[in-house]
Structures are given as C-alpha cells and as structure tokens.
Amino acid sequence: MIYVDTSSLLKLFLTDAHSPQVDLAISEERVVAVSSLTELEACIQIKALSLGGKISHAKARRIREGLSLTLIKSPFLRRRLTGSIFKAAMAQHEAATVHCRSLDRLHLAAMEELGIKRLMTHDARQAAVALEMGYQIISPGL
User: What is the DSSP string of 8-66?
Assistant: First the structure.
C-alpha cells in the first residue's frame, strides 16, 4: 500500500510533465490510500486555481467530479482520519530535526495512523522529512 499526497494526486487531473509517470506508477500499485486530508487539500487547490483565474469554474467542476469518480475505483482506497492525527503530528514535530510545514506534518501523521510506510509525493521538503522518519518515497518522473 502507498499513501498519495496532494502534490502527486493532482497530477492525474492537472497535467504537467510528470503526469504520465504518476499515472503509470499508480496503475502499478495494488492499493493507493487517499486520506480525507489529501482529498480536502486537493479540492481546496482546485478551487484556488479557479478563483485565481488559472482554470475556469467549469473546468474546476469537471476536475472535482473526476476526482470523486476516480477515488471510488481501484486501486484507490479512501481513508478517513480521526482527530488523533494532531497528537501524532505534534509528537513527530517535537522529535524532528528537519523542519516540516503543517500540512505535510499532518500527512505524515496520517500515514502513521494508517500504518503506511510508503509515500508518493512531488514535494521535496515533505520527502526529506519522510525519509528522516524511515518512510520509502516514490516521486514518479523526478
């Protein structure tokens, strides 16, 4: 099982140079965990692109609909998080020797709560912290 963060998940819907590699890497996984945090962050980023004029409101709606349809298909597995991730995030923060932004820390705490040790991310800072924690990092195309 692999945990996909927002930086990688959105490459399936907002095409860039790494999108084909992300699509291929996901197709090779048995289970791709998508937390409620990842889903929320993806929706927020899509809306921000729309409100900022980078994509149309209609395109944002199509992307959100595509996201919802995609996440109910294999290999994706939606995972709801509990409030305990905040306690885990704080414990990770206190033990850390490398800086980690809040949302990235919450993703890593979610991985801990879900018992997942593999992370697909295109966020170099998050990857560095995850490596320090002993997680395996997959960054298709990088």
Answer: HHGGGTS--TTHHHHHHHHHT-S-EEEEHHHHHHHHHHHHHHHHTTSS-HHHHHHHHHH
Q: What's the CATH class of domain 2-138? A: alpha beta
For 102-124, write each residue's pLDDT tens digit: 999 999 999 999 999 999 999 99
Quick one: residue 115, left, alpha or beta (phi over 0 = left, psi -120 to 50 = alpha)? left
Give Dmax over CA atoms of the chain in angstroms.
44
Report residue 106 as tokens: 């919450």
Whole-model pTM over 0.85: yes
CB 11 within 8 A of CB 80: no
Q: Which of 118, 120, 129 is closest to 8 using CA atoms?
A: 120
